Amino acid sequence: QVQTVESGGGLVPAGGSLRLSCAASGGTFSRYTVGWFRQAPGKEREFVAIISWSGGRTYYADSVKGRFTISRDSAKDTVYLQMNSLKYEDTAVYYCATTTRVAEVAARFFGSWGQGTQVTVSS
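Above: the chain sequence. Below: its structure as tokens.
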């Protein structure tokens, strides 16, 4: 089944922007909801944003709403996370994953986790 490959992380100053990519590998996202999650050192993994591949419906965590935008490029079978107005609190390893459930934000229902990409926001 489909696997995910994250990229685009790096070091960025507070207030800056970064775009993460989640590419499908060994399959497609066509039958899935794709989500971004993040985990900071010593903290639990938390939901960031999801997008349903077919319908394009999106949901965001309150902490990133208005600053982050999740989108898709069907031709490239890739999901993006555009992060603007970054804060130090956004520092974490960001993961991409999939689920067959709709409007699902709980990590336990997702699978096909990628390797993660580190986002570090300096302040």
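The chain is about 0% helix and 50% strand.
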